[in-house]
Design brief:
There is one protein chain. The protein is of the alpha/beta class. It has a single domain, classed as Rossmann fold (3-Layer(aba) Sandwich), CATH 3.40.50. The protein has nine helices and 14 strands. A ten-stranded mixed beta sheet has the order 7-6-5-8-9-10-11-12-14-13. It has a two-stranded antiparallel ribbon with strand order 1-2. Strands 3-4 form a two-stranded antiparallel ribbon. Helix 7 links the parallel strand 8 and strand 9. Helix 1 runs antiparallel to helix 2. The protein is globular. The relative contact order is 0.10. The C terminus is likely disordered.
Length: about 300
Amino acid sequence: MDIVTARRFYAEEIRAVGDISSDRLIQAFATIGREHFLGPGPWSIVRPSGGYRTSPDADPKHLYHNVLVAIDPKRDLNNGHPSSLAQWLDSLALSEGEAVFHVGGGVGYYSAIIAHVVGAAGRVLSIESDEALAKRARENLSSMTNVEVVCGDGTQYDPGSLDAIFVNAGVTHPTELWLDRLSLGGRLLCPITISRPLNSNDDNCGTSGLMLLVVRHRAESYAAKFISPVNIFACMGGRDLSMNEKLISSLRDNKSQLVRSLRRDAHHPSDTCWLHIDGLCLSKESPRSAPPTPQESEAR
């Protein structure tokens, strides 16, 4: 099988397994060369039962399956499960011409997928805290003029106004900066997770929890819902130990499916709050309705 055919089968496998609706996203998986980002083979591929196996040789066809491939096996750092990443990106409903912030860009493969979806008229800002990975991503993405790669803390870096934010590392809560930078109709997808072990706040630890999708309807009105479980590396700067403890309690209640909105207004905790801190609440209430501001009216 030639590599073009292998990529097409891979993309269609992702469409079927992930129930992907975006044709542009599937076309991106069929077009972007995964081997370009993972370097020369043979490659370490994650076994379903755990641990790694080594591909039989350096033929890129081994990468075109719905499998995790190691970036750094010693750190258990992998390229991301294709159908899972595709499902999450599909939930963002990316379209041509949009501006996207990719936090935790790794070696750049999924930043390239995003860039292909938003096209030449769009832009992707990919940020990675690991200097070595950021350097690789910058080299890997050098031919894509609509992508910029920076090394830094994605919770502190100001990306400007955005249509979508994809956070590919576990946080205890969305940052105010991310919420502020979403344009009207903008979407934020981030993993809301607890650290493993539970008493750890190490940026290099694994975390587990749920993927949260937030949509900014109006200046201070955000719809929110959890869309899937997730196990993922921690986000540098995105973890708060006290929030970690509150999340443990919230997740134990097993009522995450009731979350409907994200509130930023001052209010007292109540039984409608799934997770409450000052200035941020994941609420069981529907998104707050309010008359549009003059700026929102103009945006229409």
